[in-house]
Design a protein that fits this description.
This protein is of the alpha+beta class. 27% of the residues lie in helices and 33% in strands. The chain folds into three domains: 85 residues, Immunoglobulin-like (Sandwich), CATH 2.60.40.10; 87 residues, Immunoglobulin-like (Sandwich), CATH 2.60.40; 155 residues, SGNH hydrolase (Rossmann fold), CATH 3.40.50.1110. It contains seven helices and 22 strands. A hairpin with a 2-residue loop joins strand 1 and strand 2. The longest helix has 25 residues.
Length: 373
């Protein structure tokens, strides 16, 4: 009985051994799951992954929206370099997975599928549509949105051919504008490019074509205070101004000069009223009729508040405040430049009680230009 029991035990061990050998011979060991990484350059995606134990090769999968699933696109031997570059299109998001396999005879064992890796190719070339000087020290930049962008870089140069220096990195998918507030009074060439974020890196689109600072034509219509600005500044502004003038001159004479000189997409500043604040109703009625006509030609209209007087025999500051308040509240389609409040805070000096000295006039000019935007 003991001998039979011993033989039975040996038989069981022998059968277990044969089963183990059979399993090992028929089923290759399962590989570990590789980790997929990637970078992008222009329209190319470069994928890399780690070597894993028991791998004879690797399958790379790409997501196809038409299939609503992943499709195998590459079979890479374990002996090959664990790096591959795939060409695609700009401004796209590609989704990849990888898994390792082990093969023995005709049997294949796979690892688990890796985590999905999303890689953005470079954004499309940005298009800078506006580089407009809005004041002595500020230029407004606008560009078209690039669909896959996570942000933008802005560079500038004094020469079209460069060298260019980066002046801003602007994160945000919806960022399509920038104000360069340190122009040093110069006209610059600007370029912008979009970037997209990938895990651990960024990919950059092509820079826009160079765009030089432009300046909307500026027209200032005013009285003797404007005459003094014209004589002091002497820039390319179209100055339509005359000493001691007011509403009647504006409606009968100045408007003809203005419309003859008016260029497309101009900025028009009206700075009148110190000589005839009692004509406020006529100003409002006339401007509300004329402003839509000018705006239809691309013009932007600005009403600049009448500034204070120190000692004027014909008008006082209370009358000026009332005039300004009605102009601000009743003139439609124009932007308001609150010069009165600015001078109240910054201070001012006059040479005769009505007309400002050179220092104040220069500050008025720069304040006006700063508010034209």
């Amino acid at each position: 009985m003991k001998r039979k029991s011993r033989y039975a035990g040996v038989l069981v061990l022998f059968l277990v051994f044969l089963w183990t050998v059979s399993v090992r011979a028929g089923s290759p060991a399962k590989p570990a799951t590789p980790v997929l990484k990637g970078t992008a350059h222009k329209n190319e995606v470069t994928l890399t992954w780690n070597q894993v134990k028991n791998a004879r090769g690797y399958h790379i999968y790409l997501y196809y929206s038409a299939d609503q699933g992943f499709r195998r696109v590459l079979n890479i031997s374990a002996r090959a370099e664990r790096r591959v570059t795939l060409k695609g299109s700009l401004d796209r998001i590609y989704r990849y997975k990888i898994r390792a396999y082990n093969k023995k005879a005709n049997k294949v064992t796979y690892s688990s599928m890796s985590k999905e890796l999303q890689i953005k190719t470079a954004p499309s070339k940005a298009s800078l549509k506006l580089a407009e000087k809005r004041s002595v020290s500020m230029t407004q930049l606008n560009w078209n949105k690039v669909s896959s962008a996570d942000g933008y870089q802005v560079i500038r140069s004094e020469k079209k051919e460069g060298p260019y220096r980066r002046i801003a990195v602007l994160p945000g998918k919806e960022t399509i504008s920038f104000q360069d507030t340190n122009t040093e009074g110069k006209k610059w060439f600007y370029r912008v490019r979009a970037y997209s974020r990938n895990p651990g890196s960024r990919v950059y689109g092509a820079y826009s074509d160079p765009e030089r600072t432009s300046e909307r034509p500026l027209m200032v219509i005013g009285d003797s205070r404007t005459v003094m600005l014209k004589e002091l500044i002497g820039d390319k502004t179209t100055w339509i101004c005359k000493i001691s003038m007011g509403y009647k001159w504006l409606a009968e004479t100045a408007v003809k000069e203005a419309e003859k000189a008016l260029k497309k997409n101009s900025d028009i500043v009206i700075w009148l009223g110190v000589n005839d604040p009692y004509n406020i109703s006529d100003y409002i009625t006339w401007l509300n009729e004329k402003i839509p006509v000018w705006r239809s030609k691309g013009a932007r209209i600005y009403i600049m508040a009448v500034g204070q007087v120190e000692k004027d025999p014909f008008v006082d500051n209370e009358e000026i405040r009332e005039f300004n308040a009605r102009m601000k509240s009743s003139v439609r389609g124009a932007r308001y430049i609150d010069l009165y409040t600015y001078l109240e805070k910054a201070g001012y000096r006059t040479t005769d009680g009505t007309h400002y000295d050179d220092a104040t006039s220069r500050r008025i000019y720069h304040y006006m230009k700063k508010n034209i935007r």
